[in-house]
Amino acid sequence: GGWRLFLTLWLVLVTHALLDAFTIYGTQLFWPLTPTPASWSAVFIVDPLYTLPLLAAVLAAAIRGPARWRRGMLAALAFSTAYLFFGLGGRWYAEQRVQAALDAQGIAVTGLRAVPTPYNTLVWRTVAKTADGHYYEAISSSFDRGPPEWVRHPRGVELARALAGVPQHQRLRWFTDDWLRYDLIGSALVVSDMRMGVPGL
Question: What does the alpha-carbon distance between residue 93 and residue 106 come to, in Å, rounded to a whole number?
């Protein structure tokens, strides 16, 4: 009936937005309200282990018929959902390990975020901001036996003064929750989202 079609289309739209929120890039789940975009950082923006089982189930259903492949589609959906929550657990574990290592060294941070490295949820890149305008960057895995190692970088926050009052800069600070790094490269001021990739390299 019509309500089934409506429910199907509604779920397509809603679950797509929720999936965006599970990435580090995030999305404005509560638009038109303007809190910082929801960014739960459970999976990389592109992750074949999440996508391929769903794609295989859809293709099989298209070839064999949805009625005959119903269990396969449900199994793929259950796996993909469990994978998202596995990513959330991996992020929490990575953040706890790095926070504990920083605490053991007496290093105070004002913010800390773990993000999955490309195409997996087993190796995590964690960035931690300090009040003196620097940040620490660590790579860790659930398989590590020793404490995570890190490098310390300047954020270049003094360079941000040149952007005071620039609307695009203010919006970028809002969108990223101020996870920004500033570099003067030649005559260009480059602003990087610290959550993405490895800034400065």
Answer: 20
Where does 73-187 show beta strands of DSSP type E? 111-116, 123-129, 134-141, 150-154, 180-185
Rounded CA-CA distance 34/171 in Å is 11
Q: What's the full length of the chain, in residues?
A: 201
The two three-digit tokens of residue 83, written as one number: 């994978």
Give tens-digit pLDDT for 57-112. Answer: 999 999 988 888 889 999 999 999 999 999 999 999 999 999 999 999 999 999 99
Q: Are strands 188-193 and 180-185 parallel, antiparallel or unpaired?
A: antiparallel
Structure pTM? 0.89
Residue type, 90: G
Q: Phi, psi (5° rounding) for residue 149?
A: -100, 155
- pLDDT by residue (tens digit) across 107-125? 999 999 999 998 999 999 9
Residue 166 backbone phi and psi in degrees, to 5: -80, 120
Contact (Cβ atoms closer than 8 angstroms) between residue 157 and residue 182: yes
Is 57:69 a contact under the CB 8 Å cutoff? yes
The partner residues of 76 in beta bridges, in order of sequence, read none
- What is the spatial order of strands in the sheet that 123-129 belongs to? 111-116, 123-129, 134-141, 150-154
Under 8 Å between Cβ of 69 and 59? no
